[in-house]
Amino acid sequence: MMKCVFIQRLFKWHSYERVLIKVLSPLISTKPIHNPKLMMTLLVRNEADIIETNLLFHRQMGVDGFIVTDNNSTDETANILRKYYKKGWIKEIINEPGNNYNQKKWVDRMIKIAKNKYHTDWIINADADELWYTPLGNLKKEVDYLACNIVSCPLMNVMPEEKTPLSCWNKVVVSPIQDLEERGLSKYAIYNIQINKEMHRTKGYIRISDGNHFVEMFPEKRSYNSTIVIYHYPVRGYSHFQKKVVQGGEAINNNPAKNIGTHWKALYDIYLQGKLFEEYKKVVGDKNVVGQMLDEGSVKIDETVPLILKKILSKAKC
């Protein structure tokens, strides 16, 4: 254990950290962990419209337990979290009062709790608006045979359909659009290029990146061969969009780091100018834009998650 800590500190301090990891990683074995323990971390703030769906969905997908950080929620999020804490699904709820968008620090804390206290083998650092799906029906089956410690998974944005339940949203962006502004869309539109996210082992963990998109490990053995797809619900109507921009923009302005949340800073400036609704229409597109995307194949009808959600939610109500 002391040796591992020493190596991590050496890498953290050494200016050639990344080179050392790349050179040494192929020399170290990462044997598959059969029937691994899988946990999920969630950082939430005012997610009452989706957090219960998230928990139900991922429990169905084989997640053994959750560690959740609640960052100043003022809606029903806290009550929903307590419900699933009492059921034993959520192992810990951390109440984080900070308002400075210190996501990296807070997620790192949850990873270390999952590793050191709950001895989990694999971990997913998710947001409340992400549903991690595999056609195998269980996320643990994806990594049961993989001799790696990082799995890179693609995101697909799901288009919002206001005044209808989440379980009816079946339009998914499958191909990003390059010429957004030429089509009259925002450069922050849901048709934009999405960056993969990564699930990882806890053994060898060094640090997580801002946004949870990349993880640094020693050794570093990454796989792109899983069937996992992340269905992403970043925009859930204008009211949700406005709240997200305001709370995100205010928090990021309290963070001294200059290179994080640049899109939230830009959207928050638009909000302060009183032009957020006009921007929102360019973020999601109108019926003509959506119809064009469907014809081109950039957007497709996908009933995969809606069918699962309808079954899960109907059972939950019984």
Class from helix and strand fractions: alpha/beta
Would you count the extended β strands for me? 14
Query: Measured on Cα atoms, how large is the radius of gyration?
Result: 20 Å
Task: Give the helices and strands as they follow along the chain.
Answer: HHEHEHEHEEHEEEEEEEEHHHHEH
Number of helices: 11
Q: Could you report the average pLDDT, rounded to the nearest whole number?
A: 90
How does this structure look, described?
With about 325 residues, this protein is α/β, with parallel strands linked by helices. The protein has helices spanning about 1-15, 15-25, 50-60, 75-85, 105-115, 140-145, 240-255, 260-270, 275-285, 285-295, 305-315, and strands at about 40-45, 65-70, 90-95, 120-125, 130-135, 150-155, 155, 170-175, 195-200, 205-210, 215, 220-225, 230, 300. The strands form 4 sheets. Strands 3-2-1-4-9-6-12 form a 7-stranded mixed β-sheet, with helices on both faces. Helix 3 (about 50-60) crosses helix 11. The protein is globular, with a radius of gyration of 20 Å. The protein starts with a helix and ends with a helix.
